[in-house]
């Protein structure tokens, strides 16, 4: 490799993240050049619609209408994929690597599902893919997992890794907003995915968990092994009951290595109001890691948005530039990934929050307690309120129980004549 005065960047995508990247390169370009000893110049930008008005002024001659024009340009040294989606992004990144370019991506859907295949292509080409922005936006997490914490056996990772859902839950619980209003705001602010179903149904968080879990537990992670439940069924009513019981509701991604195997799950969770994660508001994310040597470490910061995510992408561009400048072939060496056993969800333990409606008549509560007792589910907290003249709303929190046993208890309860409806089931942690 020959040293250059300026390295050429090719971007694929100029939406929320791409705009943030350009703004940072423009504003801090001189400082970045000083830190790197080489300048960075954006040579081409692929977008879907070249005629769309942009939030940022861009020389029209840079704009092209297909990623191929970026990945096949022989002058481009580093390809930055901030387009999203899987198939086209996968093809473009594979081609960029085959053409000898370093790649930076913010695409968690792609890295969770095809990361190993792309990293193998990169290794073959003596190149690398940098993907810090794919998890938790601006928070440094991938590098600490690969480097600073690499000597630890990591036992547990747990956190809030989706800014959109955390924004929605915060706005519902603190401002009393409706779900749809809060989602529209998150979209307006650029936190949500192009298809926000990925956020609210928990998929985005599950892709991020797959990436963090692979690095934490040095294991390949198959998406089908992650239990995923989003926040679409979380009602303001449950947020208020949770508050009454001393909890907040957050969408958590949890990965744990136990003697039985890996436990991997994403679901809305009641967490104690004084837990540090309960205070993480709006688009902010936070991740706890427990390493056998370091103990507990918490990462906190903005998990979505144009400049925070752009910050992580630009740092990756700088790492790729350092590799090129210092003739390091592939930069940070990737971890090796084995295949660890995964514990099926029905065998995992949880505490449960259950909200139901029952006939307001004597003995209902006793028969509920009996039904739970028969399946070895014990009850911890209870709220009972009259709903109308004949109906009571009952909120129960169980002690720890396997998912399988809880489901059996639920089947029995649903069949009881006094039970009118089961309205909410959520998991609880201490
Ligand atoms: N938004 C955020 O806070 C974060 C996003 N990410 C990830 O970053 C990536 C980009 O997200 P974001 O910036 O929000 O997405 P946007 O939807 O805002 O931008 C996507 C960009 O890609 C371009 N594009 C889409 N399809 C094509 C295509 N077929 N060919 C060429 N260009 C195309 C669009 O072009 P056009 O402008 O013409 O429509 C647009 O410029 C995603 O992988 C996302 O998951 C990661 C962390 C945070
Ligand atoms: N849609 C994502 C964007 C960042 O990854 C989120 O809301 O966290």
Automatic annotation (TrEMBL):
Its cofactor is a metal cation. It catalyses: L-homoserine + NADP(+) = L-aspartate 4-semialdehyde + NADPH + H(+). It is an enzyme of class 1 (oxidoreductase). Keywords: Amino-acid biosynthesis, Metal-binding, Methionine biosynthesis, NAD, NADP, Oxidoreductase, Sodium, Threonine biosynthesis. CDD domains: ACT_HSDH-Hom. L-homoserine binds at residue 193. PROSITE patterns: ACT, HOMOSER_DHGENASE. PANTHER family: HOMOSERINE DEHYDROGENASE. This is Homoserine dehydrogenase. It comes from Dethiobacter alkaliphilus AHT 1. The lineage of its organism: Bacteria, Bacillati, Bacillota, Dethiobacteria, Dethiobacterales.
